[in-house]
Amino acid sequence: MGTSAVMADLSTQGIGLLSSHTDVARAAEAMLRKRFTFAPIESASTLVALGGDGFMLQTLHRMLEEDRSIPVFGMNRGTVGFLMNEWRIDRLAERIAAAKAIRVAPLQMKATTVSGQVFTYAAINEVSLLRETRQTAKIEISVNGRVALPELACDGVLVATPAGSTAYNLSAHGPILPLAAKMLALTPISPFRPRRWSGAILPDDTAVCFSILEAENRPVSAVADQIEVRDVARVEVRLDRERSLTLLFDPEHALDERIAMEQFAT
Of 123, 132, 133, 217, whose CB count within 10 A is highest? Predict the structure, then answer.
């Protein structure tokens, strides 16, 4: 009997397969392709992504760029794997069918540079502003068109979604936001003045605007997840409610429960 006769056909269920370029992820992909037949990526209605959290973000950004909203079931072949499920080769179709769907909306970053160029990018985790040199950044922060903080002297500042609140935001001592909270975290990165300002939790329909003070002498870059715009003068951030992404998780390890349990991590 040929190998193809014993392969489970997942292409009939519209399940496609992507992997990162690491050796571990490629080896996992080869194992799966020996066991299953997958649908072409272009026609897939569900994707399996093999890699780490960075690759999951790349995959979700690809969905946004292609204007596709198909669910993604990640399996961890990276390091942390917070956005991924456990790597297991057996009963893949059954796991996907039983998975819990978690919907997340991305942030939209509109960044205007000192030279007047305008760039618009999406972010699933966070939009962060970071000083480019040893000079401290000076940033004015406005909320819904009103100046809330005239000058923040810092290494940077970020806006994080609930899905991203346990990533860079948490490392910067920002709050963990449950997925259902409908909030955004506004978190300073190594603030110098005002020293006691630890950030804010804002409703997710809030528009946040950052104006860079002394932008030419104190250059600042803006980063939407992994996409950087250098020498910015103004950055506007808001939740893009018109677009959403769907991640699939094994019910016992769903993202909303993981985020909630991070509040008890030691």
Answer: 123
